[in-house]
Amino acid sequence: MNQEKPTRREAVSKAVLVSAPEGILVVDVHGLILLASAQTEELFGYECDELLGLPFEALLPEVFREEHRRQIATETRVSGLRPARVELELPGVRKDGTALLVGMSVNSVDSPDGPLVCCILRGIDVPQQAEQARREMEERFRLMVENSHDILTIRDADAKIRYMSPSINRVLGYTQEQMIGATGFELIHPEDRTSVETALNEFWKNPGARDSIQYRARHANGTWVSLEVVAYNLLEHPVIRGVVLNGRDISARKNDEAGREQLIADLQQAISKVNTLTGLLPICASCKKIHDESG
Fold first, then answer.
1. SS3 assignment, position 118
2. DSSP states of 273-295 as a string?
3. Given this model, what pLDDT does residue 289 score?
4. How confident is the model at residue 2 (pLDDT cuts 50, 70, 90)?
5. Residue 152's CB: how many other CB atoms inside 10 A?
6. Residue 290 lies in a domain
7. What does the alpha-carbon distance between residue 21 and residue 114 come to, in Å, rounded to a whole number?
């Protein structure tokens, strides 16, 4: 009889997981998925048991992950105290990287190994008006990128250019077609190339990193253009899967800085040549010249 009870409980638990009309997810205090129902796997596009052991953050867009960490910490902070159920609507990410909107009911329960967070999940259909608004927002973003003076670039893991905005033609005189599929490293000034490639190689190893660098690039007409590039490593982002770079022409600023530095150098040189005169100066009464030691 003692062996029958856990078997029956397991059977009942499995029946609930299989037949529940909504997704069920259980997460431990570290944010790892301990249990996922078949409906949850179907909702996010995973195969049987693929979700087990994954961090719940894998189901969220990157920008929402830090907020989720805070929520998990809040839900599991006090053992023995059951907080009120929380209802949330938040964006999710399927295994294939596509987005969905999820309704989630969150509560916590105690267990011998520590508090657990239990989630009831359901997919939310996006109204047609919202879908239209999303498309309009994407169109506005596309127009902003295509008409920006900055160069937006997306590079793959092998550093080859997957996308480059049309502003490459305004800034450096090249077409998008000339750049896509290439690395473009040959355009970097020889004096800057080694340091740039070394910095990029290190940057590629740190998903989620953000950094900036300045270097000179060759214009299609043979002149050199000073660029400031801000890079975001989004290689692990389920949708982007690349490094996003935003480059700006800072040639005018560099010229101004060089002009100021030259002016300061000229002034310092002029000051160094001025003789300091001290004491009384003997002056000739007739010619008005200063007498030196030889008279």
1. strand
2. TPPPP-S---B-TTT-PBP-TT-
3. 76
4. very low
5. 18
6. no
7. 28
User: What is the chain's Cα-based Rg?
Assistant: 33
Which residues, at least 6 apart from 116, have a Cβ–Cβ distance to it below 8 Å? 26, 27, 28, 29, 34, 76, 108, 109, 110
Q: How many domains does the chain have?
A: 2
Q: What is the CATH number of the domain that holds 185?
A: 3.30.450.20
8 Å CB contact between 212 and 259: no
Angle at 85 between CA 79 and CA 86, to 5 degrees: 110
Gap between the Cα atoms of 253 and 274, Å rounded = 32
Count of residues in the chain: 295
The domain of 228 spans 148-251
Distance of CA 112 to the CA centre of its chain: 39
CA distance 174 to 220: 6
**Cβ–Cβ under 8 Å, residues 216 and 250:** no
Predicted confidence at residue 79, as pLDDT, reads 45
How confident is the model over 257-274, as pLDDT tens digits? 778 888 887 787 777 766
30: closest CA among 116, 91, 111?
116
H helices then E strands: how many in the chain?
A: 8, 10
